[in-house]
Protein 1
Amino acid sequence: MQDQATPLTLDDVVRLRRRKKGVQFGIFAVLIGLVLWSVQATVIDDTDWQRIGTLADIGESVAHFIGVDFALIPSLLGPTIETFMIACIGTLLGLVFCVPMIWFGALNVTPFKPVTYPIARVAMTLSRSIHEIVWALIFVSAVGLGAFAGILAIAARSLGFIAKMSAEAIENIDHKPVEAIRAMGGSNLQVMIYAILPQVLPVILGIVIFEWEINIRRSSVLGLVGAGGLGLVFFRQMNTFNYPGVTTVIIAILMLILIGEVVSHYSRKALI
Amino acid sequence: MAILEVENLRAKYSARGPEILKGISFEVEDNDFFAIIGPSGAGKSTLIRCINRLIEPTSGDIRLDGTDMLSLDTRALRRKRRHIGMIFQEFNLINRMSVMDNVLSGRLGYVGAIRSIFRVFTNRDIQRALELLERVGLQDHIDKRADQLSGGQRQRVGIARALMQEPNLLLLDEPTSALDPKISREVMELIRTMANELKVPVLCNIHDVQLAKEFCNKIIGLQDGYKMFDGPTETLDQSSLEEIYAMEVL
Amino acid sequence: MTMPEKARPDTLRGDDVHREWSRFKYPQTLINYGVLFGILLFFSYSIHYLNIPLERILGMFGRLGDVLANRYYPPDLDYIADTDYLDSVIETVQMAYLGTLFGLTLAIFLGWFAAYNVSPSRKYIYPVARLVAMGCRSVHEMIWAILFVTILGFGLLPGVLALTMFSIGFAGKLFAEEVESIDMGEVEAIRAMGGTNLQVFVFGVFPQVRVAFTGIAIYTWDVAFRAATVVGFVGAGGMGWYLKRNIMQIETERTAAILLSIVVLVVISELISAWARSRVSKAQ
């Protein structure tokens, strides 16, 4: 900021500090202003406080949810397994569709940069920016209700993230083993298998497991739009006002996600 | 008889970049342990990479075993490279593979596509790999992953991998500069023993003059892309060293 | 091309001694293959159980292309240029902003309580905080939205609260992990001079994680904004409601326009995040 030749006077220091404080204050003021504006729009204008009622009323509606519907538990087993399977197959399918996108989307291996690279990048952004519920709707309209639409939705939603991270992993490989294999007369294929894949495969698998864990959470709601699994049961309990049943379904989801987290934790550790 | 003849070699990094090698010539004889010394940035690394064309020279002549290296097409170059073993400064091992797979990978130049996918190697290759691992003293680490070894052990894997190629020439690119002095000496000793036994000439670039004097029989000195010295080790004296390292205080 | 191969003496002993080596290691290789086989078996059983018509997957691309080209094209851009819709876009941004901000504020405390190394009480607060973080994160934002809509009725407020819960869980876990990887020396120094837990956090912990927290906050915004575009689906406000209505009425060209607007908004939000991120890493 300051030239070394001209030493800072006390005045300069004070002015700089003041300017810095001013900028900080400005940013802060803008943030607070945005909060007030947003609160005004969402909480004050838009909210029907009559409908919400007093705190006691809220407490009463929350109290509906307390309790577990034990009668529901046996019929939860099927949908739970279904949700889990949708997550697994969806992730696998996403990985399969990912392969060409990783190939196109990594700068150092993309076959024809001016065309293939932008295509891959746009596809990755599309995949990630559309919410899984919307993907599910699109696929339900294309292939009908059921688990198949759910799987396709999970695949479509997760492939962008997997492809983006994997392409970055390929862009960041260590080139020393590549040089070694080249120096001993290895072909491009051998360079791929012996120098590139050993470096990126564990990284990609780690990313896939991470995404799989998130996909369990995603597949638990796909039933809301008719794509199978626990979400469907949840919706049914909600529509029949069976609030303890809702709680039971949520507990089932939590258990499933807990299992996923444990499996993910240990398998990622085993990869390193 | 000269196995490697280099004549008037020139090279640059990029088309418009500065010239790194400015007309280097030398000859490596059949039983040489040949050293390239010089300050960093003199072009040692570029020179050694020009021999197997990891870097393409701009002009000049390289003849290895009578073959004109610069006229080879991609395929022929690969077939030639399998006879040139290379040992690297930072080992360049495949860190996530086992020691055994790293050593076996030295045979890749001889192995077809399908077999390299499934990592199928002949019994003869496996026997040779085990023997080499014994010779470099790693028989107890065969199935460890390469990244679990110490620096000295990794360079031993690098040596075994290079010898797996049954090379006609060994290129060493600063094989000891990532190692401490004691291990460096052990590694150089091992290379000399193995090279003598297998009668493989060695071309080695090395920043440590003491090691060069101790292990090599011939030395060329580079400075700023020019050859400043060429001769048997005994003739390298203080004045020629000062010429090579003109800019540095010895 | 001829290869003048000179017969070099291969003084390695060669076949004198027979050495044993095999890629197969008992029992490790067996276990590895067993696990792999188990996973494959599970996958094929799942495909069977869920009745997945694998042969339709490839053909589906053509169908999907057809459907998109015939029914979703061209997107009805006039529809999304309408003020009502643009208002809902602004509402969505406001909802995401408030939800993320509330969530992040609470997540800072959660991150502190749920980090094992500095948690005020390892016996009571730590496990509770962990549980809260896990609960908030595991329940999908759509489920939070449905629950809050049931309790509070339709509107933006349930959306804000759903996003708050989501952000608490999402950022809370990442915050806690960040805090757990700090240098404990500085914490020790504050403790040694008799600092309270709050002082330990403010002076020993927070300065170390400030930059990482900012990065996590930006990331949380990215994810929460995406969620905000659809919570309206279940009546929690914002543009999701328009999406639902048009899908229900099979107004495919309007749906396409809304989807397009979502993608554009997300891309804009990501560009802003990327800019903020580069600012943060420069300031560091």
Note: Chain A touches chain B at residues 174, 176-177, 179-187, 189-190, 193-195, 198-199, 202 (CB under 8 Å).
Protein 2
Amino acid sequence: MSLQWPDISFQDRMATAEFRVHERAHIVVNSDSCNGCTTRACVVACPANLFIPTSDGGIVFNYEQCFECGTCYMVCNEEGAISWTYPEGGHGIVFHHT
Amino acid sequence: MPDFDVIVVGAGPAGSCAALTIARTGKSVALIERGPFPGSKNMYGGVVYPRILDALIPEWWNEMPVQRWVTRRSTMLLTDTQSLSIDFRSDAWGDAPYNGATAFRPDFDNWLANKAVEAGATLVCSTTVTGLITNANGAVIGIHTDRPDGDLTASVVIACDGVNSFLAKEHGMYPHTDAAHFTLGVKETITLSKDIIDERFAVRGNQGVDIEILGGTSGVNGGGFIYTNLDSLSVGVVLKLPKLAAQSKRPEEIIAGLKSHSAIAPLVEGGTVSEYSAHLIPEAGLKMMPTLLDDGLLVAGDAAAMCLAAGIWLEGVNFAMASGMYAAQAACEAIEKGNTSAKGLSLYKKLLEDTFVLRDHRKLRRAPQLVLSDRVQHMYPALITSVVQGMFHVNNPLPKPGLRKILKDERRRLGIRTIDLAKDAITGFRSFG
């Protein structure tokens, strides 16, 4: 790679997308499964970086800035560790120039 | 009596074309959308090929919300330090009846849904469908929604609920879901002035460019793209899920890597990221397609994996629109004949088999796997670019080497076996020939 791209911060990047957040979390993570997980695929793959590993081997997550893509439950190899549904109608990600 | 003749779930291109087709026959149709407006949940990797709309909306080009008409189509190979483009331009694509256009999906999908509404469809937004209602025989007779008292019944339900299709999965239409059949698409919309875009991409007026890229994805199998909107660019990558999950670079870092390539940076620099977005793509074609119909149920669009990811052809919106339209025709015929069982709905399968929707997928059934294979992704771009470099590099006082010798030397240097090259060439020829 010949040029270094001055990239925007992740926070600024996420601030470009509109999220109409509902009070109910549409992602639920079963932390018992995460504690034994070594692959942590959701951590690297989630485009919104919603899954953060903790020092005690668990995963903290937030659902508010979710693109509703489905990557997390698709890459997760722990059956049932990530329960994922669509948020309530009218809520969640709202795209504009996509 | 059911509440509606047909309920269509999802107001994307499949759902709206279905609802439009049904409404025109005078039947009652509800079009249910979970977003606050049609298109609000949708993003893609760039070009709508609307030819199929000729059958539904005469001279659609006079009203469709277009960013630019694609008159330049490039396919680019990237290695870390090289690029090779095949760049095609056609003036004909810049005039009616046109070929492809860049468009923002929230604009395009909203426009198409409103065509269905104008024809008499009932559009219900901000409503998530949470499940199917079935009768004692297992036939689909309606939907549950997240509205209070939100159950609705219909003679036929058409599931156009997108790549994650919880309805098709709930009803057992997908025997298994394999993460390897999906890619993650991530994209930046980058604001730049129209003048700068026109200059950098050598286009004028409402002419536009679509560049599809092999390589430049930080070693993760997939691809990249750049295309022009009127006063912004869309730049992104698609990444095969298991490969993305098995390494340590995050999606936005992979886009940053693409944008920093010496062939890409001059196109995008100075722009401001105005929207970041992500979506899954059903990438495996025929191999991953679910059962397409059951008693009272049809599946269309991304929900039925009708997305063509065949390298030189990357299409989806056209497959969605056509499958939605054909599903609607089958639903209408079944209702008129009074038989909405799977057998009564079988016209859907026939219409798909008779047209590009399944014929393209059948012919190109081996292409998605080939295109995302390790050799095509990691070895052939390097082979091709180094052969071209060997061809154009002047190494005087040595005389020019023959092309065959360059190819042989580079193949050996990269450790590509002749047998594999031949096998892939045959697969490629059977798919694209």
Note: The interface with chain B takes residues 1-5, 7-8, 10, 12-14, 16-17, 20, 39, 41, 44-45, 47-49, 67-71, 74-75, 85-90, 92-98 of chain A (CB under 8 Å).
Protein 3
Amino acid sequence: MKQSEFLNMVMPFKDKVFRFSKRLLVSTEEAEDATQELFLKLWKNREKISSYKNVEAFAMTMTKNYCFDRLKSKQASNLSLVHSNYKENGTSLDKKTELSDSVSIVHQLIAKLPEQQRMIIQLRDVEQYEYEEIGKMLDIKQTAVRVALSRARKTIREQLIKQHNYGIN
Amino acid sequence: MESIKIEQLIEKYLDAETTLQEEAVLQDYFVNSKVAPHLEEYRALFGYFAESKNERYTKTIQLNTQKKHWKWLSVAASVVLLFSVYTGYNSFNSSSDELTSLEMAEAQQALEDTQKAFQLLSNNMNKGTAAMAYLGEYQATTNKIFKQPVK
């Protein structure tokens, strides 16, 4: 497989890989490193991946595993990840200033969810994968995906209502 | 009324029973239309999801790592080093025992020339030193003529 062929195959989901790893690793720099590293891994295994039916799902599973490894090694070396960069550069945040506060609140609420729920929210509500695909990526049953997703959505809603009421009072 | 339909969809959404199409309807409603006040909190949620989709990986993906280059560079460097040590050692060995007769003669010639040159230099040097002896005579005469200060 040539480099250009490979890039054509993986380019469509590079942003998804990046966003997914950012959801898990929090910091943008970490996520960028992870994305770079992941595509390098895919490139090294290029002969193998051409036999996979769904390269994208495989890449997402690899991303998950890689990020978990990163998190584990971070914990082992007692380094905490930087949780400061919630604000994004270049997004439409500035345009909707009245929304931006509550939007970053949503970000923080998602960040507080358990890892599994965080991943599922990301894969479903941001990347819009089918339940079946998410189940394959995370190696869990579809019903488990739904249960976790429902739990995550309800938690976020409750917290948002709480925040909303604080704002009014 | 539209908000009733949305409320039903929200219920399904919270139970994770909506399809992707239905979720797209919800997203469109909360991002693009006037949201009913009692559903206000969902606006931030769907707004956030819509915005998150726009985040891009802006760097270029590098498939040839720097690390790999360094590894090969060090291999190349050690090969060059080994080769140069080997050839250097070889030529050192060969130069000591395999001198041709021509080289020998040349070396002999060079030695003779150098010795001749040194001989010439030494002769002239001796001439100069002999001349210096007169200066010593001068010094002795002056000492005789002028009274030396008493120490």
Note: The longest helix of chain B spans residues 101-145.
Protein 4
Amino acid sequence: MAEKQKMVKIHILGEPFYVPDGLTIINALEYAGFQLTHGIGCREGFCGACGTIFRKKGDYKLQAGLACQTIVSEGMYLAQIPFVPAEKPIYDITKLPPDITSFKELYPVIFRCVACNTCTKSCPQDLEVMDYVQALIKGDVEKTADLSFDCIRCGLCALRCPAEIVQYNAAILARRLCGRYLLKESRDLTNRVKEIAEGDYDTELDELVKMDEDKLKKKYYEREIKLFD
Amino acid sequence: MYPKSMQESLKNVEQTRPERLKLAKSGKKIFPMMSADERNKILNKYHPDFQADARCKIKIGPNKGDELTTEVTDILETYSRINPKDFDLSNPDYETDVLVVGAGSAGFAAALLAQENNVEVTLVTKLRIGDSNSMMAQGGIQAAVRPDDSPTLHYLDAIGGGHFENKPKLVRALTFEAPGSINWLKDLGVMFDRNSDGTMVTKSGGGTSRLRMHSARDYTGAAICATLRDEVLNRPDGIKILEHQPVIELIKDKNGKVAGAVLYHLENREYYTVKAKAVIIATGGFGRLHIRNFETTNHYGATADGIVISYRAGAKLMYMDSVQYHPTGAIFPPQILGFLCTEKLRALGAQPVNSAGKLFVNPLEPRDVEASALIKECADKRGIETSYDLAGIWLDTPLINMINGDGTTEENVPAMVRQFNRFDVDMINEPILVYPTLHYQNGGVEINERCEANIPGLYIAGEAAGGIHGRNRLMGNSQLDLIVFGKRAGKFAADYAKGVKLSNLSLDHIYDYEKEVEKIGIDRKKIAPMILPDYIPDHVKAKQLTTEYHGTLI
């Protein structure tokens, strides 16, 4: 990095710290001397552990984002969220119908949605959270699964929701029901699993396991490569 | 949003693109694959594993005399965090049949299968459950499902990719059980990408001879891991969960069987003991050791803890001299240094090109070969310089939509698009800058096909296991190995736990090991496992004078 780094003043838990401009919030916290055990995870925007809320100087808005994906700015007030308390009912996926009845039973809270769109505005993945909750209320499990697919379960939607819905947990159930029951069957997969169970590949594989290295190498380098449909 | 210094090179990429696009669309090979000799040559000269001080002999323990990755040797030649005399092992804090250590996909699969085999399961993890490298995997999971493919071809690809050093029986299990694993995950509710007729969407990956990569957009690992996590949470009667409590030592019984573990609670700093009839290590890899100062794609917790405690307990390691550098880690802007740019980008048609806009390697060589080719190009001064002493290679991502149609990138790699957008790079219309990044621990504790280490009661699954991939894993075989060997570990550990009788518990192996460490003159301050990496800068550390203070303040 450049030698003379511009510094910005940020507030961590209310205390001012000076950190180099351009750092992500996670890097800024570490720069300030915090060793984190909560509110931190993959550091690449995939795990949802580092949901955070903050205010920027001179801005009335309380913003939400991922600490590993948000760059600090002058005057930023930061609050780490170590944990999101959220209900997750227990269920047996093999016994649930893939329709609205499952949600009426397990997540009746979704029907409290007042369509205020706060969830959507707080989603660091820019998902249409309110739209998927509304789709779920109408019983469209597939649409919910599709719209929530990129959810990383940071829980910011649930934290900000005035109706106290646990959007992201309901969405996992929608995706699981969709994956198990609503997608068209892949015949290739069914056939291959059956072939394997019937022992179709046993002999071939056993031969490969025993094959001497020279022969195996020859087979490998001479194998046909077919990477087009 | 690239700085002026990169604009000229960017123009070169645009200039050569029409020609490269034409070739890609023709269906012909866009660049020849290297022969076995060429592969060896480039690996020996440019792969980081083959640099002068990359490896160093370990002086103690089961692999005494073997050359291991220097940073691995370093973290193994260490003392324990605890003194065994502080523990009353006759009165453990927890008791369980099977203790699963690590809550990524391998740990989850193991816990589920152990529970289904009617034993009590305790799942412990360093951070939150689900915090793992598994959650971060983007590209896909391999399984020979297409009619033109077979487990046999998958076997050949995997063992060839591993330079024929993989343990054959492990490769057999991996490839034979792949389609069944996809089916198992589908039944649990993982939404794999499908074509409109229901067939699975399959892509190629480095070193595959067929279209075999199954995906869930570029959130494949997250889709699998979050589903398994949800299922584990649905079985509270069978699976007890302890979070924020890394395992810092294994416990054995007087007869040498592994018989539990010591946990360290990250919040209240208490140590707890768990008595277990069998222990499954599913703690993942070592990316956060930043081997050879490489940036990493890995999770914050990937510090090789499971390897350290297993080795101390007497477990033999295999191929811990081998590191996987993912060919394409982000190198611009600096906030995302080392972040994974999935191999799926290249499978979809993105090409690595140098500062002159020239394609210099087939985009889908096995990972070690591809990474070496990128390193060579930069070493030969054909890379693109940044303002922070690092050079990279363009990965020409706009080709993806040009080859496959508008919207392909957005639909197939939304995570990548989102990631780069956040940092003002529009990967749909401009290339991204990449360089190899520390990605995967090829080796680990040596296992057999029952996931057993060489000590009774110790099972290993996932990245912590060694032997499955030889010294080079192919894309999509890791997500697969988590499931195949996670399930196996759970089942075989449960079977074993039902029959085993333990004698008195002991931590004596720590004394024995530390005697050896002392003999080779290691400083007492060198303690492992690391638990978490430390990114606090030196000037701050210099003022943190009481971090070892024992009083009322931490």
Note: Chain A has three domains: 7-80, 93-182, 188-222.
